[in-house]
Design goal:
single chain, 206 residues, alpha/beta, Rossmann fold, 7 helices, globular
């Protein structure tokens, strides 16, 4: 299959996909894209705005995975609003723009992933592993949730071991690498979703 991996980050969802498919990854931050390319050298990595890339290129792919930025939708956004120093932001509606376009016009398989929101979702999602999913097939129900620790004692080494993604040798990225890994979806969940699509494709052909 030709797979489009949007908002690719360090490729948590892609970690266990192996190289049997043709994968194009889109990541806006050049330093993060460089990490992704080093981890998955066979993928075609494009530094671009994933939202813009989707609307002009979606017809070229068989399976699309999109994980738009989640902070403005998250329950943490609601909790932080209780603090006087926090600036509340409107929920980023690009999430629903992508869902609507894919539901209406895309002929292949798609998954749009996001955190559980502090409001009732405007379009009903499926749930698995502590995430919301909007998809045109059934998302397997698995529990990959782990206790998230953000204290200073929860080192990068512990986070890398938990995610099985090792990025300590990449010095071009100046942000918090623990946060980068926190944003990576669990690789086990990415794998079972891809396997579900592969099984459905096999049934169609046989």
């Amino acid at each position: 299959m030709k797979i489009l991996n949007l908002y690719a980050g360090v490729g948590g969802n892609r970690k266990l996909w192996s190289n049997e498919h043709e994968i194009t990854a889109v990541e806006y931050d050049q330093s993060i894209a460089a990490i992704y390319k080093d981890l998955y050298p066979q993928d075609n990595v494009i530094v671009d705005d994933a939202h813009d890339y989707l609307i002009t290129n979606f017809k070229q792919f068989d399976f699309i995975w999109s994980s738009p930025p989640c902070p403005t939708h998250s329950r943490m956004n609601f909790l932080l609003n209780q603090k006087e120093t926090f600036t509340l932001k409107y929920p980023d509606m690009k999430l629903y723009e992508e869902i609507i376009i894919l539901q209406t016009f895309f002929k292949g398989y798609f998954v749009v992933e996001n955190v559980k929101s502090y409001y009732d979702p405007l379009i009903t999602p499926q749930e698995s592993g502590g995430h919301y999913f909007w998809a045109n097939f059934d998302i397997p129900k698995i529990d990959t949730r782990k206790k998230v620790r953000n204290d200073k004692g929860y080192t990068l080494a512990k986070k890398m071991k938990e995610k099985n993604i090792y990025i300590d040798n990449f010095h071009g990225y100046k942000g918090d690498k623990r946060t980068l890994l926190n944003n990576a979806i669990e690789s086990e969940l990415g794998l079972v979703i891809l396997r579900q699509i592969e099984e459905e494709e096999w049934v169609k052909k046989n």
